[in-house]
Amino acid sequence: MIKKLFFSILFLSSLSSYAQNFTFGAITYDDYEFDRKRLDSNANAIVLKEFGTARIQLDDNTGRLELIFEHHVKIKIYNKEGFKQANIIVPMYKDDNREESISELKASTFNYIDGKFVETAMDRKAVFTENRSKYTRLTKFTLPNLREGSVIEYSYQLRSPNLFTFKTWEFQTDIPKVISEYLVFIPGIYTYNVSLRGYQKLADQKVELSKECLRLSGVAIDCSKISYVMKNIPAFIEEDNMTAPSNFKSAIYFELAEAQNINGGKISYTKTWKDVDYELVSDRNMGSQMKKKDVFKDLIPGIVKDAQDDLAKAKAIYNYVQKQIKWNNYYGKYTEDNIKNAVDSRSGNVADINISLIAALSAANLDAEAVILSTRDNGTVNKLYPVLTEFNYVVAKVNIGDKSYLLDASEPLLPFGLLPLRCINDQGRVINLKKPSYWIDLKASRKTATNYILNGELTDEGKIVGLLTTHTQGYAALNKRKEILRYPSPDEYVEKLDERLPRIKILSHKILNLDSVENALTESYEVEFTVNDGSNGQFYFSPFFINPITKNPFNLSDRTYPVDLGASSDERVMINLTLPSNYKMIEKPQNLSIALPNSGGKYLLQCAFEDDKIAVSQMLQLNNAIYQPDEYFALKEFYSKIIQNQKSEFLFKRPAK
Asked: Where does the secretion signal sit in this chain (predicted)?
């Protein structure tokens, strides 16, 4: 899926001519009449042409090198669903010193009216910027006068100080593309590692020498002129249960490996892990902070005074840091300032919190390390060589006896040893103050488990009354606790829950272990609801009203990327209902037992009626956290059978009066 591309500065005569930009506004009748069936008959919009170019040049005003990136695209809109392609967002990086900027923006909509194309140019007032975060600014604009059948076109130039990653080019997006072309000019003083991600193949690629493309201090520098072309590119459709789309979309990535000074000498950016270990351990906002045990020296005795062993100590320290420092919702592998300020102000980013945890564990003479990682929405990291910019998060690792525990104290509702789902992403790198770093698998330490138990009876009035008890553990408990605590009180949560369940009335409730995150969360509800009356003294009862599966989560005809649930799961439903005497069962749901290949999971359903009692037992197990693309069809069929079976009901006939 990730392919390393190597280029020499030679003319490859066997390949076709270079990618070239196209004239803005040159809309043709063929553009207007383009038949989407050629790519995707269900497409709401299609990119007809896309061209990009990137080069490095000297900014005469600042004397600094900068990246100049140009993007030009033409899109055919087929229906109103495709109108969203006219809402353009261009993310731009910024920091305290420099930022990216956009210029030369043009955007127009073309409609075919009375036998000719009529252009509606975008008003400059339609362009605005938004500060998304400390490091990201967004330029947004919307093209005007949209109709079904419109062709839209826009182009812009982006100036960036970021030479390290050059400029990524996404061949694949959420709509199909007829052709996407990228032309780059890389000065000979720079060497980049170039990789192609995704499952789509290049239709063409070409490398040639471009003479004197850059001049520094009077010295002319040649460039590698490289073109990449991809054609007939399918849309990338995102589905639930996946990590970052950037892991799977077809795109070209660049990483600066080496820079040569025009006066001689080289700087290597492709470092070994030994180099990176030294850099991180020496960094004032990472290794230096991990060493600050003195911040907690006077606090530790009080924190661990009731602990009987090292595991109890670690849990006490973890709970203290969870409560002491509130997360400011920023990620990071480096502290914003220092951990003492974070402890005193009771606020900090992820690194402030978890490096404080490492220092506190070390102050208690526990073996603690840091683990840097990339979150699920940030993509997986390169294993061939270390690229520190790919890591955006840090957690703690504590080693007790022959066991290790990964800890993130930024989430106050996480139990000890369970990382938030955002961190469950392939592997992280363990950073030790004294030993070489190494890779560690990032896996959920607990399965997601939910048990529903309903014990009740059918009254003569045709209502079912009973006690519904739910036990949740793992991520299910974390999510449920977050949901409950969004309300001022559990009572208000239950009130809103009652409103969302029109057929079920909650008579009373009890919620246990809401704050005891190490234990299963238990909810008990006395409920009442009416069954479906049929004719001739008959009534229907569906046993699938508790968390039913009504929609298949897997709907693609083909999925080229894994199904990543983050954790294995186990859900069970037990229903025991007593009916008045002499009721006769006419129909019932069929018992079902199905399994996924390779012990990947199973679904069991057993329904019985005996001695005036309905007994329903339902179990859904998914034994893997990750299912590979070749297992997708089996998952899809697995859920289809469950959904089909859950459409059935019990049918009973009441005794004659």
From this structure: 1-19
Residues 411 and 456 both lie in one domain: no
Q: What pTM does this model have?
A: 0.86
- Give me the phi and psi of 455, to 5 degrees please: -115, 125
CA separation (Å) from 546 to 396, 457, 460?
Answer: 38, 16, 23
In a shared domain, residues 277 and 262: no
**Residue at a domain's end among 210, 241, 268:** 268
Same domain, 420 and 476: no
502: confidence class by pLDDT, cuts 50, 70, 90: confident
- Taking the alpha carbons of 423, 429, 430, 433 in that order, is the dihedral positive or negative? negative
- State pLDDT tens for residues 368-417: 999 999 999 999 998 888 889 899 999 999 999 999 999 999 999 999 99
Structure tokens at 268: 């290597």
Do 484 and 552 fall within a single domain? yes
475 and 513 share a domain? yes
Neighbours of 590 (CB within 10 A): 9
- Indicate the pLDDT class of residue 35, thresholds 50, 70 and 90: very high
Place of tokens 């009080």: 302
Residues 208 and 287 in one domain: no
Side-chain-facing half-sphere of 67: CA atoms under 13 Å: 25
What is the longest distance spanned by two Cα atoms in the chain? 106
Over range 97-116, report the average pLDDT: 92
Please give the single-letter amino acid code of residue 213. Answer: C
For the stretch 288-307, pLDDT in tens is 999 999 999 999 999 999 99
Domain that includes residue 508, residue range: 448-653
Other CB atoms within 10 Å distance of the CB of residue 129: 13
How many domains does the chain divide into? 3
End-to-end CA distance of the chain: 70
Cα 277 to Cα 113: distance, rounded to the nearest angstrom: 64
- What is the spatial distance between Cα 476 and Cα 329, in angstroms, rounded to a whole number? 22
φ, ψ for residue 447 (rounded to 5)?
A: -80, 160
Q: What is the CATH number of the domain that holds 73?
A: 2.60.40.3140
Residue 264, CA distances (Å) to 189, 210, 260 in order? 10, 22, 7
Say whether both 260 and 295 belong to one domain. Answer: no
Residue with tokens 């661990």: 304
Which of residues 400, 418, 441 is at a domain's end? 441
pLDDT in tens, 347-360: 999 999 999 999 99
What's the mean pLDDT in 169-182? 97
Quote the CA–CA distance of 343 and 337 in Å, as a whole number. 11
What is d(CA 544, CA 252) in angstroms, rounded to the nearest whole number? 47
* CATH (domain of 521): 2.60.120.1130
Q: What is the rounded distance in angstroms from the CA atom of residue 129 to the CA atom of residue 419?
A: 35
Name, in order, each residue with C-beta under 8 angstroms of 301's C-beta and a sequence gap of 6 or more. none
Is 53 found in the same domain as 75?
Answer: yes
Question: Tell me: the pLDDT tens digits for 6-26?
Answer: 443 333 333 344 567 999 999
Element (H, E) at 313: helix 310-324
Closest CA to 418 of 300, 567, 551: 567
How far is CA 149 from each of CA 118, 152, 439, 538, 644, rounded to the nearest angstrom? 13, 10, 52, 55, 39
Q: E strands, 383-520, where?
A: 393-400, 403-407, 427-431, 438-441, 448-458, 463-473, 504-512
Q: Say what the pLDDT of residue 3 is.
A: 55
